[in-house]
Specification:
The chain has 465 residues and is an alpha+beta fold. 41% of the residues lie in helices and 18% in strands. The chain has 13 helices and eleven strands. Strands 1, 2, 3, 4, 5, 6, 7, 8, 9, 10 and 11 form an eleven-stranded mixed β-sheet that branches. A hairpin with a 2-residue loop joins strand 2 and strand 3. It is elongated, with a radius of gyration of 43 Å. The two termini are 61 Å apart.
Length: 465
Amino acid sequence: KKRTHAPPTAEELAIPKSFVVRRGTVGTTVRQLESDLRAVMQPHTATNLKERKQNSLKDFVNVAGPLGVKNILVLSSTEHGAYLRVIRTPQGPTLTFRIAAYSLMGDIARAQKRPHSPLNEFKTPPLVVMNNFGSENRFKLTSTIFKGLFPSLNVHTSKLSDCRRVLLLDYDEERDIIEFRHYKIVVRPVGINRAVKKIVLSKRVPQLSKLQDVSDLVLGGAGALSDSEGDEMTDTHVALGDKYVGPGNRRATNETHRSAVRMREIGPRMSLQLLKIQEGAGVATGAVLYHALKELTPEERAELKRRRQEKVALKAARRAQQEANIKRKRGANNDNDDNDALLEDGEDDDEEFAHAFGGGEISDDSVSGQDPDSDLAWYRQQVGEEPDDDFRATAQRDTVDKDDDNDGESKKSKMPWFKARREEQKKVKQQQQQQKENNKKGGKNDKKRFANASNNKSSKKARKR
């Protein structure tokens, strides 16, 4: 994978990627508009992005950072019309537009006399053309956001054949509407005979069976090509600096070799009205920088700012409380793990205790003082000789005096540290026993449920029969 999956370069990381999603309940036409907008945003967009009702806008904003997505286009619909939100991640701003009117790509194709089906035009991003945007702050911000939807054009490294589409955004000052248009660039050679040009551009071989010579086809005569088209507009004639897509579109070697550039609309078409500009990336409750329908007073702005600060403080307090709860639960789990580890290490502790007080494995009788020869055995194991009379007398004094006063307990078992250790082990064993009993009860309940479910199924089958 290190050889086949090369890490992205700095130029690839700088390319702005995008999501086009819809929120809420929308109609069929808005769904199709979403698909058309994804086509416009190609190739740096998720064309096959799957959406679910459980997904919120916050989910898309959260995954935008790791995936390198910088723009999110959100379509929604209400009883008043359709809306488009353009979100710049991760810090915003968010632009909200009302879609006054729109036409789908299929509608544009049906309205044309000779519709064109795009093939390879969507492999490269379109050229963004902004027209008639004023010098106001809202226009500057809007133009910056739309330009940031696509990678910038580098004149020195870009190829002429990569310029296949144009996205035109024209502002109508009278209606306060931004016209959204999407075109395909079509280039055809000019400066040659019309008949020869049609032969070059035609995909079919002309019918020559009724002609005496090919000159009859070019110069006129029976079967000559039609010359009914109007003259070409000379303003669109350019000399190509490099080879372009299409027959005859080669690099111009002289002034006579020129090509005509046209634009053919492929859709979609939208009329957008800017309603609001807000700080934050969609889900954030930032300040409103511009509102087309409502002008806020300074007092209202201060009140909204105070409310936002209260929400932020409340959110921080809730997060701190959640973190404290998590730490508390983790501490309780760690205590339970320590008890389990203490229970598991009980055998090792008993062995160490036995090794220190008499050697060998410790038993309940030896711990309670019922084995008077434990010290003598320890002396024989460590020294390798039989104990003398003085050591025997000392060991005899430490043994248990089984009478009614001490109830058969040794001095060793009466020591505080010994009692604390035994009490702790008893508590751990009781907890483990209680857990086993609870597990057994749960298993019995599950068996009862399973038996009841099987009885219900068998009774239903019997009724059907």
